[in-house]
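User: Predict the complex.
Assistant: Input components as received:
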Amino acid sequence: MAVSISDVARLANVSISTVSRVVNGSNLVNAQTRARVESAIRQLGYRPNPFARGLMLRKSEIVGLVLPDLHGEFYSEIIRGANVQARQLGYSLVVSSSRGGEESHSLLHAIKQRSLLDGVAVMVSELTDQVHELLTDLRLPLVLLDSDIEGASHDSVVIDQRQGAAAVVRHLVMRCGAQRVVFVGGLKTNVDTIARFEAYRGVLEEGGLRFSADDVYYLDYGYESAYALARREVRGWAGRGSALFAANDEMAAGILAAAAAEGVRVPGELAVVGFDDTRVARMTRPPLTTVRVPMAEMGARAIELLCERVSDPKRPAARVSLQPRLIVRESCGAKAG
Amino acid sequence: MAVSISDVARLANVSISTVSRVVNGSNLVNAQTRARVESAIRQLGYRPNPFARGLMLRKSEIVGLVLPDLHGEFYSEIIRGANVQARQLGYSLVVSSSRGGEESHSLLHAIKQRSLLDGVAVMVSELTDQVHELLTDLRLPLVLLDSDIEGASHDSVVIDQRQGAAAVVRHLVMRCGAQRVVFVGGLKTNVDTIARFEAYRGVLEEGGLRFSADDVYYLDYGYESAYALARREVRGWAGRGSALFAANDEMAAGILAAAAAEGVRVPGELAVVGFDDTRVARMTRPPLTTVRVPMAEMGARAIELLCERVSDPKRPAARVSLQPRLIVRESCGAKAG
DNA sequence: TTGTAGGCGTTATCAC
DNA sequence: GTGATAACGCCTACAA
């Protein structure tokens, strides 16, 4: 059996209350006693039992982060930002993907059963009823990333998708002279894809350009599928004033590679832009014009909000909106302006 | 105050022991009583308090994963594999990077103070004394990834770096006819870099090739620095029978880009190979010959070992070794054989 | 099959 | 300043 507070008390010849005071840094304890207790603690290698402590304090100092998936740089950066922030605030971070495996294996499900977590930040790619229901009576501080649940009161951090998408499409139209813009999205039901599509469509209208449903494709955010699609279609897309807006960088990279393979010059015959500004954006040739999404910051702010709420459950719900930023490189054929 | 086991007992007109039995699925309880209790549980929305439970059971069902860094696909894939496995086994996964921030902010440090975790899997890129000391009296089930601590008894999962590195260098020498192989590593102190370098050197000798310290570079595993280096050096590297072995794919990608920028043909004038088989390996042009490291599996096996040990602390230490595999693409100028 | 009671290791509230 | 002692919510002999 591990050494407990009473062992320390015995060795130091004090009561357990005194030991507790020393451990918790209470200052109403005599310097000499403290020294004696501390020595006993060291000698015994005593470490407070976190369960017993949690039983009293009702805090685990652990928060959760649930993402739609753990694949790819986008999520990985969110985790990274979240981790830094969590550690900074003295919390540990449990991560999990909501997808994959049966529903009953999801972290949210587990949390609902019984959870040590002090709170959880959740990002969902599709807001199904199931998720909705799961989220509404979590009885746990909740921060939503990149979406909102009507009715429920919770903190959230979102990125201004529309603004970012509009900026890059506007750049295409205003500065690169695009007359036609092809849109390649992720899953049609994906909330980000929807927002980006709407912004895209809005800018087309605002610029007096014709919108054609034939110029809209829905894929899966993957390099491979974008590459495959572009191998078939890129010649049809190419031409004077042609541009393409891919809803993430990976797909844009796939399209770039396919264009090269098909002998279509970028940006000469086709301007291409992506979204997210992940690492690949700097690794393609030509480098990708894209929209920088502050991924790590998203994670960090979410955890920050979460921990704030953990320590002050009464504080009114906050909503922080992060602004993405246009990053002009060479794939669109126009310098920043 | 939340609803507790005694509330349920009262409502169902039974004792708390009976409720406990129902909750824990003990079968020595009358079907009718069980039904009554279950109904009460639902009605009250009762969820067992995990702290109280942990106090008795001494288990949190949370395990930790500490990586040197959370940046990049390599670590992200380990996390993904670990997460899947953890969920599968009914555990939650705490993730953290060991680097970044002061030492006192590290998860390991926190764990040492007091931790709810049932165990922890740790990967260190450099085995400093500090880390060593931290690890030796963790008093927690420990699995080491990709390294070993002498003396201490612990499970570990390693990948056979030397075998993988040897395979790819041998491929360069035997099948691609390389006469000279440049080595570009990560940090000189990095354990993986060291293993890969040694294998590289071994193969050179075994092939009767001259080893030159001038052909060895140490960078930081990053695209940018490799690009910068190659912009300066790639012309000197190029030539008949010249090849380059980069210790990861990112650096290889940077080198490829620099070669293109400098007008050096790959693989014509310089064969290039990488390591890891991350996503970029398929996104470069030409696609990268590399060594596939089963990243997700590493994470999964580590967690598997860890959870096994949590439930059976007496089981002898296990050591699983994962074999990387040569993946031949086009950057080396030779088909697989 | 069910109930009683003791204990898990802390913190918090009192007295002294 | 310090020490009893009562929670905290659950599990588990042991008794009935």
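DSSP finds 13 helices and twelve strands in chain B.
Let me know if you want any component modeled separately.
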